[in-house]
């Protein structure tokens, strides 16, 4: 198998913002039509959804993590809150929050950025928000702030599955959460969800996740063909399809075919270090570039996007969604999640783990410490990375940690 020669990026300066990182990644993937289409979809995601909403196509702000079957069954485009930072202008947004709302610089950078983004969109964007109550308490307070801009907030009291409690308690939680989920449909459409449509969307979700897993499996033999950043965007898209489900599925099919016949792309360092990413899906794209440049390959991802799990198609759809959330979703005890990380490490052959959290996030930090302690005892090397929600080039300290860790594994 011949090696693909990579085209040198235009310019040697570090990109200054997320769009420039994407452009640099486009150039690095000049040989892949699928990656070019992926970035086209990502960059058009919010503009197309906002324009469609103005023309009468419903859309709603949501997590963009696992609620696609419900929202698409309600003929509503999900607009992912967490991807707004990656695809927006978070630096300007955070500055707006500080100047207009007198928010101290110590405020969670994610909340500051998102409030600023919504403020800039207050007159020309989607005004409905579905808020999952257990995802992030500071963000819950942020939702209260944007009500004054005319945003309509619908809260979902999302229960958490405890380590203990028994089957009776679990069944009570499933029933309650299914009721909360159905209320989302009433909020969006004024009527109960069309269960046949939701069954179709659950089947779509399972089908697309199987295709995404096939891409990850094919990457094991040629990790640098689809590098870390586009893999992150594919992972992001698995939760909302960039508002275009049919196009996203076609894209996955195209990338599968590319990988089956692709020429081998060598590591710039001559060898490849397989890695597992655990935690938040970082906004500092320079970290992913640094991993690639040093010969690292992120081959498995334990993030809020649960691509390694299957929705149950044999039970009522609202119950299926409730059980999916309680069995996996990001909330809940990390003790229940460790076995899935262990499975990812084994399947990908990872030599080390990168744990990523946002600065000042106690929720993510607590989970990471529990994970790190467990895997340290098992002798799995790891490095903790703390990043910022603000976009742009990552700090020198962050890149130094990535470099030192990968060089140690080399």
Automatic annotation (TrEMBL):
Gene3D superfamilies: 1.20.1270.370, 3.40.50.11890, 3.40.50.11900. It holds the Pfam family HGD-D. Belongs to the FldB/FldC dehydratase alpha/beta subunit family. PANTHER family: 2-HYDROXYACYL-COA DEHYDRATASE,D-COMPONENT, 2-HYDROXYGLUTARYL-COA DEHYDRATASE, D-COMPONENT-RELATED. This is 2-hydroxyacyl-CoA dehydratase. The lineage of its organism: Bacteria, Pseudomonadati, Pseudomonadota, Betaproteobacteria, Rhodocyclales.
